[in-house]
Amino acid sequence: MKVVILDNAADVAKYGADIFIKQISAKADSVLGLATGSTPVALYKELIHAHQNQQVSFSQVSSFNLDEYLGLSGEHSQSYRHFMNEQLFDHVDIDKNNTLVPPGDAKNPLIACHEYEQTIKESGGIDIQLLGIGRNGHIGFNEPSSSLGSRTRVKTLTQETIDDNARFFAEGEFQPHLSITMGIGTILEAKKVVLLATGENKAQAIVDTVQGAITANCPASALQFHPDTVIIIDEAAASLLENKEFFRHIERENQKLESSLAL
Ligand code: GLP
């Protein structure tokens, strides 16, 4: 697990976006795994900016989103489909037919979950998966106690997550308590994983993810099993890590190695 500690949230977004730009430059038809929440918004802005500067084209890219609220159709303003259109898809040259978000309004969500898994497999698998993290260590909507081998399924949200996400809903507006989410097993099959976290309120989840035991109590800790995960965090999210200096040292060494290879 590579841990990159940067000064602030803007640097986190730039660093993360560069990884996506490199991925798409190396493989124009990359399959992206995408995430919602407030943390990836700045990264999406960087990608839009890069697209406007002709640095990257999404014309051959396809994508799968991690999760969706169960009970909301894609047209609903609180749906994650709507979020993705607004934050990224409407501003780049991606073919929206190639962007998949779990169907929150599926007649039979159990079948829809199975089909989502199948479609990921048929695409050849996810090349690079973007993740945020919940305060309780959830990834996607895999709440604590999720099986580390779980696949796309219906998941009940914890009260903590419902409360954390209440800020996106107007007072009195229906807020779903259920979701469809890729499983932890699904996420672990992505070839590369990029997790972003910023702010002090993520510091405990980051310690549990990076330095804690691998446990269903902190779903993101399963990433310790993944061969190519990078955790990009700002100083505030890194504030509780024990060996920050070592992680900084490793990153400096990695940068040196990368620039010497580029020569
Ligand atoms: C939601 C999403 C997660 C996201 C989390 C944290 O629960 N399902 O994918 O990581 O929120 O969101 P934020 O980045 O707003 O803290």
Q: Quickly count the domains.
A: 1
What oligomeric state do the depicted chains represent? single chain
* Total DSSP E strands: 10
Helix content estimate: 25-40%
Separate helix tally: 8
Which CATH class? Alpha Beta
Rg result: 18 Å
User: Hetero groups bound?
Assistant: 2-amino-2-deoxy-6-O-phosphono-alpha-D-glucopyranose
Give the averaged pLDDT, no decimals.
96
- The strand line-up of the biggest sheet is 1-10-9-6-2-3-5
Straight-line N-to-C gap: 26 Å
What are the secondary-structure elements, in order, as H or E? EHEHEEHEHEEHEHEHEH
Major β-sheet annotation: 7 strands, parallel
Instruction: Look up the CATH topology.
Output: Rossmann fold
Structural class: alpha/beta
Gross CATH architecture: 3-Layer(aba) Sandwich
> What fraction of residues sit in β-strands?
15-25%
Uncertain residue ranges: none
Describe the model.
The structure is a single chain. The protein has 263 residues and is of the alpha/beta class. It has a single domain, classed as Rossmann fold (3-Layer(aba) Sandwich). It has eight helices and ten strands. Strands 1-10-9-6-2-3-5 form a seven-stranded parallel β-sheet, with helices on both faces. A three-stranded antiparallel β-sheet has the order 4-8-7. Strand 9, helix 7 and strand 10 form a beta-alpha-beta unit. The longest helix is centred in the C-terminal third of the chain and has 19 residues, at 244-262. It starts with a strand and ends with a helix. The structure holds 2-amino-2-deoxy-6-O-phosphono-alpha-D-glucopyranose. 2-amino-2-deoxy-6-O-phosphono-alpha-D-glucopyranose binds at residues 35-39, 66-67, 132-134, 140-141, 161, 165.
